[in-house]
Write a structure and sequence with these properties.
Strand order of the largest sheet: 1-6-7-8-5-4-3-2
Number of helices: 8
Helix content: 40-55%
Largest sheet: 8 strands, mixed
Order of helices and strands: HHHHHEHEHHEEEEEE
Amino acid sequence: MDRKEAKTFLELCRPGLEADYTDPLITEALAMLDQDPELRAWFESEQAIDARISDSLNNIEPPAAFKAETLAGMYAHKAQANENAPEASSDTIQFPDQTSTKSWMSAFVGIAAVFVVLFVTVAALRTGQETNTGTAVATAGIPDLVQFLSNEMDNMKGLDKRSQQSGPIMTYLASRGAPKPDALEDVIRDKRTLGCVVFDYNGAQLSMICFKDDSYYHIATLDKADIREDIPQGPSYYQIGNQAFKMWQDEKQVHILTMEGTEEDLPELI
């Protein structure tokens, strides 16, 4: 089972329901969490979102007359369906009387309203609230570089180099001729790392260093000389699914900070 398949089964695992943990496929996916910190961070984030959705749905109060109107509509619909059925000729179209129609439509509108409330609640919780930091969170026009990194992270099988210190990782990247985040070297020197991976982006090397602090996050770096697309000058924020991205550039390189969550969850590194 690869990471993509594991995510499919882990999404079916409902918070607090032990029965889900006994499913063989879910159990196999859960076993991967100990060997894949990225997958564990994603799973914990998904479980937290599902728990919030569940709590919100439990707090929704249906209209006071919802049950009575629904039952009345069902009875009216049944009565209308049976009314004069044997006497109707094959070429006669029977129309329900006005009272029956109103009762049934009232119940239908009530049901539809409840489902609209449920849909809006889940959508709001899944997409999160819009931030007010002065920098717009992009919902369209995501740069190819950010989209590429998101896709690669979803399909990533492992790390090229593992180390809990940045020094060996920097040495490894230099040996590969891959870009190191030179401008951030002092910032990340004492931070706990997991390792790094190097991607091939349009024939250029895109390096990514993985960190573990209070949460998991990553810094990807690409030399500006290897970029063939327009990159915003100032810091830019993007959201792809549950992954938040911050992209900025210095004189020689473009950097992308990313983690599971929203813009507010991104650590302050610069």
